[in-house]
Every structure is written in C-alpha cells, then in structure tokens.
Amino acid sequence: MKIAVAIPCFQVTRHVLDVIAAIGPEVAAIYAVDDACPDNSGQYVLDNQCDPRVRVLFHPKNLGVGGAVVTAYRAAMRDGMDIVVKIDGDGQMPPHLLPLFVRPLVRGEADYTKGNRFFRPESVRGMPPLRLLGNATLSFMTKLSCGYWNIMDPTNGYTAARTCVLAELPLDKLEPRYFFETDMLFRLNTLRAVVRDIPMDAVYADEQSHLRIGKILPEFLRKHASRLWRRYVYNYLVRDFNIGTLYSVFGLILVLAGTVFGAAHWLDSTRSHNPATSGTVMLAALPILIGIQCLIAFLHYDVQNVPVLPISDALDSAPRDSGAAICQHPAK
Q: By the 8 A CB rule, do 161 and 111 touch?
C-alpha cells in the first residue's frame, strides 16, 4: 500500500526537520502544510531539506490544524495514496511508531487508528495532573457523543486513516481547529467505521499549548451535546429503529411523567399543607425508577453497538468514483 504522512506546520521550525528525517522508507509521500505560519515553516522546510518525498502545501490564511490536515488528505487522495498518517511537526509524535498505526489498516482490521497515551500506567507518569484530568473528562464526553466506547484519549492527534474511508466523509464540514479529532470520530461513526487505539507514551517537547480551558470548555460542551443529539437521531431514529430506540424513548417518557406527576402533587401538598399519601409517592417514584432502568439498558445497548466490522472491504467492491480512492488489500 502507498503510505503518506501529513504534517501540519505552524511554528514548528525547531522540530519539523527532525520529524521529517525520522520518517522511514515505507512512506511514499510527505505533505507538509504551511498553515499561514508566521515563521514561514513551509519555506523553511523547502530551504533546509532535500527529501524527494516532501511536498510543501501553503495556505494563504490560517485554517487551523483540521484545515491543514484536510488539505493533506485531499492531496493524498489525488495522488493515489492508500493510507495517510497524521504526525505533528512539534516532535511529540515519534515517527518510528508509524508502522504500529499502519499495521491494522493494512491487515483490514480497522479503518482508522489513533494514539492512546492512557493505555499503560507508565505512559502518563510525566503528564501534568490537570491535563490528565482534562483528557479523562474529554474522553468520557467523546464516548457519549461519538459512540466509540472502546477508545480513550480522543484529542490525540497521532492518527492514520484509509483514503477510501476519507473519500466517504464530508471533509469540507469537519471542524477546522481544536475539535477536529473529535469531529472526525463523530463522522466516522456515522459510516460505522472501525476505530482502534494504538498505545503510545506521552512525549512533551518545549512547545506551548495554545488551549485555554476556560475559553474552550463551553464550546466543547456545546459541540459534544450537538453531536450526541445528531448521532442519536441518525442511529436510532433515521437509519435504524431497534430495541435501543424503545429503551431510550420509553425511559425518557417514564422519567418525565414521574417527575411531572411528583412535582405537581408536591406543589399541591405544600399549598394545602396535606402530605401526599404513600400511594401518590409510589405512583411518582415507580415510573422514574423504571425509566432510569430503561435508560441504563439503552446505554448498555449503545456500548455494545460499537462498530466491529471494517467498512474497507465493502468499499473494495464499490464502483470507483471520480477522485475517490478505492481500498485495496494486499494479496494474501
């Protein structure tokens, strides 16, 4: 298979040449995307390396990491690449791990792989406690909104993807900035693509994070809620109607009915100073308890509904679209 590497370049002149030099011969093309970098990272790469695999792409204005990666994705699909691995240019994603990310894709075991810094306890010893807590919280939110309950560390940007799967995604609708990795998972779930975690250690260079928790937290909460609702509507109302749909609908109805009934009688009892009877309390509590059990059953069903069959095989037999890459497994 033809393997390409995408490197978003924004203020990474201190490390990007070392990253490119460490990329092995199994890679056929390297796309360095200068995202309107004030340090002229793209020109720096052109002037200071001679690797014939490197192709520098320039953005006239800053589009964010997501925009840079999508530009590399499109270039890889046009050039007939089969797999695209995204590696940051700041030295925090060791290129020697690339074969681990590619192997499940080559074997047809997954459609998309991503790094997981939480797989081994030793991997997170050097991670700052605040970042550890933030990543754990974001991981749980992503499980809810994207439906991949089997993955962790959703903001990890070390990823690899089959181009035939990328061709099925609305790349122009992907979030262009910090929410890019999470939005990719949401879009992949709508395709029922298989995502697999690849264990890796946390590596911290001298780059400063541009994320500000107080600024991005409200935005992340809003976007996670939006994708949770859209995923539920699409997977449980539009594309399919299954036992999980019944659990969720009846559970929500019962919880709301019990809550409204109980609140109405509680207000009535406070006005009349007559305590509610035990029967009234039971009529309010029973629907809530049963509804909670139904919602728990729905959550259990959703966890068990994680995609397990890669879609690459199905795309292999699909007719070739103009500009779309078709997956091809190596001869066995």
A: yes
